[in-house]
Amino acid sequence: MCCRIKHTYKMKKHSSVLLFLLLFSVTLVAQKKLFTKTGLITFNSKTSIEKIQAVNKKVLAVLDVATNKIEFAVLIKGFEFEKALMQEHFNENYLESDKFPKATFKGKFDDTNFTILAEENKTVTVNISGNLTLHGVTKPVTAKALITTKNKTVSAASSLTILLSDYSIKIPAVNKNNVNNQVQININLANLQEMK
Amino acid sequence: MKKLLFALICLLFICPVMAQDTSLVSGLEDENAVEKITGTFKSTRVINAHSTEMLYKGNMDFRILHRFGPVNSGVKEFFGLDNANMRMSFDFGITNNLMIGIGRSTNLKDLDFLIKTRLLQQTKGAKPIPVSLLVAAGYIVTTQQSFATVKPTFSDRSSYYLQMIVGRKFNSNFSVQLSPLLVHNNSTLNPTDDKTIFGLGGGARYKVSKRIALVADYHYAVGKLDNAITNPVSLGVDIETGGHVFQLHFTNSAGMNEKAYLTQTTGKFFNGDIRFGFNLSRMFNIGKKKKNW
Question: Helix or strand or coil: residue A163?
Answer without folding.
Answer: strand
